[in-house]
Write a structure and sequence with these properties.
Strand content: under 5%
Largest sheet: none
Helix content: over 70%
Distance between the termini: 47 Å
Oligomer: single chain
Number of domains: 1
Order of helices and strands: HH
Low-confidence stretches: none
Number of helices: 2
Shape: rod-shaped
Length: about 55
């Protein structure tokens, strides 16, 4: 999203801004969940690799 698009949302009023922020917060939450899953997977793989040493 570029600056012009952000300003367009702003000009649409508080409800549009709130919807955008909520959308972005959901996206951040999804990314955090993915990161946690990937971190757990890396830990599993590292533990498995250490067992083979």
């Amino acid at each position: 999203m570029n600056r012009e698009q952000i300003l367009s949302v702003y000009q649409q009023g508080p409800e549009a801004v709130a919807q955008l922020v909520e959308k972005l917060l959901r996206r951040i939450e999804q990314q955090e969940n993915t990161i946690h899953q990937l971190q757990a997977r890396v830990e599993q793989l590292e533990a498995h690799t250490k067992k083979q040493d």
